[in-house]
Design goal:
By secondary structure, the protein is α/β, with parallel strands linked by helices. It has three domains: about 180 residues, no CATH class; about 200 residues, Rossmann fold, CATH 3.40.50; about 40 residues. The chain has 22 helices and seven strands. The chain has a seven-stranded mixed β-sheet, sandwiched between helices. Helix 22 links the parallel strand 5 and strand 6. The longest helix has 25 residues. The radius of gyration is 31 Å and the shape is elongated. It holds the Pfam family NNH2. It comes from Nostoc flagelliforme FACHB-838. This is NACHT domain-containing protein. InterPro entries: NACHT_NTPase, NNH2, P-loop_NTPase.
Length: about 425
């Protein structure tokens, strides 16, 4: 290996950074750990096991040579440093390229799907390692772009690496096929219909006496549509603890704050009561209205029951008309979605319906995607306020917006208490 490197370097005009850093000590480290970290996210064991490590070690040396050359050129040409000034960075650069996160980023250049490298993380890693301050004109993005081009040349010149990459590609295809083999092939709407009826058909009477629970009450027969008014502005709830801290820090006069809040509340109430009263079902079925709305209401005001009724409405109409082409109701309880998302069971709403543990019925996500693209669905997100962590709630709001952008013809309803709603997203209605 050392003999190969000496011969290879002799054919190239490399700078002193390469000759100083890629030393005999570096080769010892290379044999131990460097190549393993370098290719950690690129080649799996199944691909590299049949081969000696030499082709990969050669690739590491060639790639690092190009990276060091790019750094030296950047310091010399762009930053106009002398050779003596550049030498002052040798120890820091040596430490930098041995950092695990840096090795993994540089190794990503060998990924067949890679078209750019994370130069911002490289810059952050230099700061994190508390290395010598780089000149203001130093540009990590230019270095990564140049380095990526050189790695592509290394790949094209090495038959051994190309062969390993082909095996990597085949391994990736095999993995995808295995994952797809686990996908449920059914999109059984009749069974989905029965599951909705079983799950939501009867009112939940857990809080009543045992004798009352012995006789199920049919939601479809008992449901009375709530009345709503449109809300153009929502008065945000100021947390008491936040208000207290402002007062203690003398940033807020308590009496003045209370007076202002009362004035704002009265103005919002006047605007609210000036809006006409409408049946919530009329609002939902209004074809002139935009596809997206939020239903706001106090706890126990029937927001979840409304969504369950809409799912049951699909059941009744589908059976009545014997038509399974009516828009499919998808009711996503957001607390269950976030529980599965946090557990790694799903990354988006389609995956949640596809195979998440807390989804009451699984539908093939590929066929569901087709239905959503055709606009043939009513998607209901229940309980935005039940996501108590504000960062996670903001994340879900972003996911819902992304969902509406991807499926613009799908009707979407979100329910929330007022405290869980961020202003100015969707058309908003409040329970009367």
């Amino acid at each position: 290996m050392v003999e190969w490197f000496t011969l290879w370097i002799g054919q190239k005009a490399v700078g002193f950074l390469v000759k100083t850093i890629i030393s005999e000590e570096f080769f010892k480290d290379l044999v131990k750990d460097y190549a393993k970290d370098f290719f950690k996210n690129i080649f799996n064991n199944a691909v590299t096991a049949p081969f000696k490590q030499e082709p990969l070690q050669k690739a590491v040396v060639m790639a690092l040579t190009e990276f060091l050359q790019a750094m030296q050129e950047q310091l010399k040409v762009r930053c106009r440093l002398s050779e003596a000034e550049i030498q002052n960075y040798t120890e820091d650069i040596n430490k930098f390229i041995r950092d695990k996160s840096v090795k993994e980023i540089l190794g990503q250049a060998f990924d067949i799907k890679c078209d750019s490298l994370d130069f911002k993380t490289l810059a952050d890693s230099w700061k994190r390692l508390q290395l010598k301050l780089l000149p203001p004109k130093f540009n990590w993005q230019t270095i990564t772009e140049q380095y990526l081009i050189q790695v592509q040349d290394i790949l094209s010149d090495s038959e051994e690496l190309r062969y390993i990459l082909e095996l990597q590609k085949l391994s990736s295809i095999d993995k995808t096929l295995k994952e797809n083999a686990d996908i449920p092939k059914d999109f059984n709407l009749p069974q989905y219909l029965e599951t909705i009826r079983e799950r939501y058909g009867n009112l939940k009477l857990d809080s009543l006496e045992t004798t009352a629970r012995e006789h199920p009450v049919n939601l479809w027969q008992m449901f009375i549509p709530q009345n709503v008014r449109q809300v153009y502005q929502v008065l945000p709830e100021l947390p008491k603890e936040y208000l207290r801290r402002l007062q203690e820090s003398k940033q807020l006069d308590a009496e003045f704050a209370i007076e202002k809040l009362q004035e704002e509340t009265e103005r919002y109430q006047r605007n609210y009561f000036e809006q006409p009263i409408r049946s919530v079902l009329d609002v939902i079925r209004d074809k002139q209205r935009k596809n997206y709305l939020i239903i706001l209401g106090d706890p126990g005001s029937g927001k979840s029951t409304l969504l369950q009724y809409l799912a049951l409405d699909w059941v009744e109409k589908t059976l009545e008309q014997n038509d399974f082409n009516l828009p499919i109701p998808l009711l996503i309880e957001l607390r269950n979605y976030m529980r599965d998302r946090d557990a790694g069971s799903c990354n988006n709403f389609l995956q949640f319906y596809h195979n998440s543990p807390n989804c009451f019925y699984h539908l093939n996500q590929h066929k569901l995607h087709q239905q959503l693209k055709a606009g043939n669905a009513l998607v209901m997100f229940d309980g935005l306020d039940e996501i108590f962590e504000s960062a996670k709630r903001e994340e879900v709001i972003t996911c819902i917006h992304r969902f509406t952008n991807e499926y613009p013809d799908v009707q979407v309803i979100v329910t929330s208490r007022i405290i869980g709603k961020r202003s100015q997203e969707l058309s908003c209605y409040c329970k009367k």
